[in-house]
Amino acid sequence: MIIYKFGGVSVKDASGIKNICQIIGNAKCPLTVVISAIGNTTNLLEALVEAYFSGNDKLRELLNQVKKNHTSLIHDLFEEVPEQVLTDVNALFIELETKITKPSSDQFNFEYDQVIGFGELLSTTIVSAYLNQIGQNNEWVDVRTCLDSDDNYVDANILWESSKEKVCTRFTKNQNTLYITQGFIASDPKGNTTSLGREGSDYTAAILAHLLDAEKMIIWKDVLGILNADPDYFENTTKLDTIPYHEAIELSYYGASVIHPKTIKPLQAKQIPLWVKSFIEPNQNGTLITKGERPQPLLPNYIVKKQQVLVSLKPLNFSFISEKDMVFIFSLVTKFRIKLNFTQNTAVSFVFCVNTSARNWKDLAVELEKYYEVEITENLELITVRHYTSATIKEIQFKHHVLGEQKNRNTAIYLIDTNWNFPHIPKKEFESALRDFSFQENLE
Ligand code: ASP
Ligand code: MG
Predict the structure, then answer these.
(1) Other C-beta atoms within 10 Å of 16: how many?
(2) How far is the CA of 202 from the centre of ligand 2 (A)?
(3) pTM of the model
(4) Which of 34, 241, 370, 412 is the most exposed place for a label (fewest CB within 10 A)?
């Protein structure tokens, strides 16, 4: 069995879907294809859940937008729209509409998961129908019928034992079978839909690869593979040819957005090779993640996390930040289900960084204000450098206003204040200053 995963960008319009169907058509079966929601559907559904939960009047408009996006995609994609796909897609629209017409419970995460998976159910229904129409017979699988999880809504944990049996029965390894299924969702013991965390479709593909002892897995992206830096922020990027599993885990942990952080472990456990390849240039080699010691080529890898907020805490009295404070602060952070991206403490302060998009961070700050003096700084970013050199570090320090730094043998993390504008430095002077840095480096 081979596992393919296609993200939302690859299926964002009719030509995207035609392109991935061509890639699927060229593949060897048995093949299982995991697909995300189309384009920005998950973001739209997130807004829809917020509106539903808070009783906001945008609800109808958002629902209509989701419907319209999928309906026009269908009309762009099919020359003659088969009745069946309209029936199936309409059934999903009705199910979604019925859900959000009923009053919401007071459990946001539960409600979120009952709505968010419609994106994947719709996209896979459309792609499966299109493949059938162009003569590529396939089986559409509702992944919730075989992927079990606990009821930790929004970030559910897979129940490996019970899933194994069901997945192996559902996805048989018959020679010619092509399966189309959803990423990102599963089902809890009561049969409610659960989700595995944003961008979780990579993880779904890896879970299926693990349970089915897949020969390999390919994640198809709009870049040539894994690059040493995000081309949106860095000028000269280089594609990495191979990356060891442990290194890929580190990169995704620090926020490299190419792969969902939970993806690698299930593959590593069974030594299943993972390719990251371009759906635009499918014949190019891409990046191979496999066993090994070092990435090839070995270069500094930059990971940028934008939209960070720094929360600084100081005790209200004249005391120090003690171990007790740390336990208390972390227990609140866990209770609010917040992920910290950076932490640092001094004798009288403790600071941490979270994504501005984290749903609860303001509530957490309000709670902390009962016990500490709280200061908030927004518009920050984190730059992590794996395999840094002294030159890369000097460059970062020279180009940015660094508020905090953390370094170990392989990794350096910088907290950058983007509120602070650099005085304009002409390119020539900047380059000569950098040369001075390199010169100093030689002297060291
Ligand atoms: N559609 C989901 C998301 O956008 C899952 C995924 O794309 O992996 O987060
Ligand atoms: Mg996605």
Answers:
(1) 21
(2) 9
(3) 0.87
(4) 370
